[in-house]
Amino acid sequence: MTQQAIVAFAVLGVAGQATAVALVGAGSLRFAGITAPFQLLRKAFWGNELWLGFVVAALATGGSLFFSEIAHYAPCELCWYERICMYPLAVVLLLMALANDYRASRYLLPLPIVGAVLAAYHVLVERGVVSQSKECILSTPGGCATKWIDELGYVTIPVLTLTAFALVLGFLLLAGQAE
């Protein structure tokens, strides 16, 4: 059961990465003056940005709880900071989606931005590009560099977290365009 759930999260992560690449690519082309791809994505997601952001944040929240409470992977120091950024997004995005309220989307932007920076740093620590801090080493066995999962050759918990923050950020940016 645990391995099946891990593979399911990895597959969702890869699908999320493809979506994030499409969002970043379309946004980059828009800044270059090529608006057709952005308009196509805008039309595809129109009216569902908050719900999609909620689904991503809820899956990320549920995934983090699954990994710590069911799979018994001890969350490290960086994981806790990333959770601090993700958990409120799930609740607030649900409330915003229920109310169809796009006005607050810009005020939520700091959470996925800070979370994505933390997750990117966590990926670098995990890959050995950046050395762990003393707090990381003390926070859990193996510290923040512990790879609790490693699916498809690169999908680890911090990679999934970075993917979730990138998607939530993209959906919030699209939601901000709805006004």
Strand and helix layout:
Layout: H1 2-31, H2 36-45, H3 49-70, H4 77-99, H5 105-108, H6 110-127, H7 134-139, H8 157-176
Helix pairs in contact: 1-2, 1-8, 3-4, 3-8, 4-6, 6-8
Low-confidence stretches: none
Helical element count? Answer: 8
Q: Quote the beta fraction.
A: under 5%
> How would you describe the oligomerization state of the chains in this entry?
single chain
Specify Rg, calculated over alpha carbons. Answer: 17 Å
Mind summarizing the main beta sheet?
none
How would you sum up this structure, described in words?
The chain has eight helices and no strands. With 179 residues, it is mostly helical. It has a single domain (2-176), classed as Bromodomain-like, CATH 1.20.1550.
Provide keyphrases for this structure:
about 0% strand; about 75% helix; about 180 residues; Bromodomain-like; mainly alpha
